[in-house]
């Protein structure tokens, strides 16, 4: 271990953005990563057969495009290319029917028949104001928005449930679209805030599209690592930090970990009230994920589903709601709502010629070790008859295995904390600055801080800016951030 100005523990996207921000400010930064490769939830690997490259975790990256943190990082100069399907996401229903979001609000509205007006009323202003609204929800939730009226209007609507939002629509197709986007929240669909997700995801879909990274999500991490090392930053892999006391003395330590891990790393050093607040942090459901190597594209009955990367599988609004209610009540649904991604639709290089990779997960109770492969495959087969015949190989990761691969996914919760109203605003504890911990010079930068889960790097940027501000104060200099 060399002398450094700052240490970052964890090389997920947020840890790497934090490290890069510190290094760009002139600090000498070392990153310690438990896994054998950097990237955390942004890695790509041959999980099934040689030549089939699967995104181990994140695959679809609208947040990357919307994120202010990535605006200053020139990914394209490092060879990162985003491939955007015409259809952002689709939702099949029985009988070969489907609904989808892509293109303009008017185009989607026209495809929804009786719900055309309701779609325009719901999404028209959100999409028009997307550049005013999205930065607020990708921010710290602690500052006055630059466009307070647009933000307040959106914020009030976002408090409602997906069920209330679906109540505006009459057709099974439109209601299913709402359910599919709301399901990402992992909340019951009648819970407050579950209606925020379809609105935000709709805005992202119309404004940016839902792209994948050519060759796999790991290319983003490779670019961040290249930028960091060009600034004399270093990354040490296979290095699990078990206690903060084991780190060399360093004025600044930024942790890409969640509250439960911070308790493990520093429990005895933390003031009791802060430790209690961390212990109250709630985790959400886990996921069980399956990756497949396929002998061809998924034979969706609904052709729209063949032209998108992201497919929300689970049937009608009521079916998706039942699935998510089951999970939140500690049960494993028989017919789970599944998030499915098929990157080869836009990125054929992920698999050998004419073959495809496929990734899907469903939600399960936190800490579950139940293998949901059969139930997920049955759901896909229901909307794509013949799917099972194409399977060459598969790899399943249960919720407990997800945590074993990455300790930040506590109980398999890939969002690093439940999306409750309290935790969306006061994440991880009720403090004005969410990135400072109760320990001087120690910061949290994981998705357990605002704005939460996803590959956007904003938690890392927020933590690093706070740390730079504090370093500037200690040195008696003014910090620019
Ligand atoms: C199956 C799945 C699908 C997803 N799909 C998407 C998607 O399509 N789009 C999207 O935007 N997001 C998606 N996500 C979420 C996204 O991956 C995460 O929100 C994001 O990676 C969080 O970044 P992070 O840096 O906070 O943490 P992580 O990416 O979890 O990284 C944390 C890192 O810290 C390391 N670490 C933890 N503790 C220690 C320790 N004590 N010592 C050393 N190292 C440690 C871990 O090994 C890990 O590498 C998905 C996640 C999963 C699991």
Description:
The chain contains 18 helices and 16 strands. It is α/β, with parallel strands linked by helices. A seven-stranded mixed sheet has the order 7-6-12-13-14-11-15, with helices on both faces. The protein has a five-stranded parallel sheet with strand order 9-2-1-10-16, with helices on one face. A two-stranded antiparallel sheet has the order 3-4. A hairpin with a 3-residue loop joins strand 6 and strand 7 (about 95-100). It is globular, with a radius of gyration of 22 Å. The two termini are about 30 Å apart. The relative contact order is 0.19. The structure holds flavin-adenine dinucleotide. Flavin-adenine dinucleotide binds next to helix 1 and strand 11.
Pairing-aware structural class of the strands and helices?
Answer: alpha/beta
How far do the termini sit from each other?
29 Å
Strand order of the largest sheet: 7-6-12-13-14-11-15
Over all CA atoms, what is the radius of gyration? 22 Å
The residue ranges in which pLDDT falls below 50 over 5 or more consecutive positions are none
Mean pLDDT: 94
Ligands in the model, by name, code or SMILES, are: flavin-adenine dinucleotide
Taken as a percent bin, the fraction of beta residues is 15-25%
Number of H/I helices = 18
| Main beta-sheet annotation | 7 strands, mixed
What global shape is seen?
globular
Q: Quick one: how many beta strands?
A: 16
Helix percentage range: 25-40%
């Amino acid at each position: 271990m060399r002398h450094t100005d700052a240490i970052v523990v964890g090389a997920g996207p947020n840890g790497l953005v934090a490290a890069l921000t510190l290094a760009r400010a002139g600090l000498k930064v070392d990153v310690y990563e438990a896994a054998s490769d950097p990237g955390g939830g942004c890695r790509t690997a041959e999980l099934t057969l040689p030549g089939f490259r699967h995104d181990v975790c994140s695959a679809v990256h609208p947040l990357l495009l919307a994120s202010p943190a990535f605006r200053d990082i020139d990914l394209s100069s490092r060879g990162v290319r985003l491939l955007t399907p015409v259809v952002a996401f689709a939702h099949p229903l029985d009988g070969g029917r489907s609904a989808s979001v892509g293109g303009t609000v008017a185009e989607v509205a026209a495809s929804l028949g009786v719900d055309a007006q309701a779609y325009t009323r719901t999404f028209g202003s959100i999409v028009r104001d997307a550049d005013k609204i999205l930065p607020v929800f990708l921010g710290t939730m602690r500052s006055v928005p630059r466009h307070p009226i647009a933000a307040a209007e959106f914020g009030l609507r976002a408090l409602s449930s997906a069920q209330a939002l679906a109540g505006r629509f009459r057709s099974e197709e439109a209601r299913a679209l709402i359910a599919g986007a709301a399901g990402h929240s992992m909340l019951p669909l009648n819970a407050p805030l579950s209606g925020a997700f379809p609105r935000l995801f709709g805005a992202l879909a119309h404004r940016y599209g839902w792209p994948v990274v050519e060759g796999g999500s790991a290319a983003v991490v490779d670019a961040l690592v290249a930028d960091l090392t060009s600034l004399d930053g270093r990354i040490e892999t296979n290095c699990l930090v078990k206690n903060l006391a084991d780190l060399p003395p360093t004025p600044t330590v930024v942790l890409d970990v969640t509250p439960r891990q911070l308790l493990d790393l520093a429990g005895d050093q933390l003031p009791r009230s802060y430790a209690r607040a961390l212990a109250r942090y709630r985790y959400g459901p886990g996921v069980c994920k399956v990756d497949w190597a396929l002998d061809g594209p998924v034979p969706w009955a609904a052709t729209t589903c063949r032209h998108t990367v992201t497919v929300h599988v689970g049937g009608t609004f009521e079916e998706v709601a039942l699935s998510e209610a089951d999970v939140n009540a500690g049960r494993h649904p028989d017919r789970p709502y599944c998030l499915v991604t098929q990157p080869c639709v836009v990125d054929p290089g992920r698999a050998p010629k004419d073959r495809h990779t496929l990734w899907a997960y469903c939600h399960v109770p936190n800490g579950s070790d139940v293998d949901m492969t059969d139930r997920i495959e049955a759901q896909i087969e229901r909307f794509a008859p013949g799917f099972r015949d194409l399977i060459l190989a598969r790899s399943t990761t249960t919720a407990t295995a997800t945590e074993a691969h990455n300790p930040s996914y506590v109980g398999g919760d890939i969002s690093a904390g439940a999306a409750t109203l309290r935790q969306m605003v006061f994440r991880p504890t009720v403090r004005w600055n969410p990135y400072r911990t109760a320990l001087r010079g120690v910061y949290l930068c994981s998705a357990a801080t605002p704005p939460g889960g996803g590959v956007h790097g904003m938690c890392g940027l927020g933590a690093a800016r706070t740390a730079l501000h504090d370093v500037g104060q200690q040195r008696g200099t003014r910090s620019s951030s």
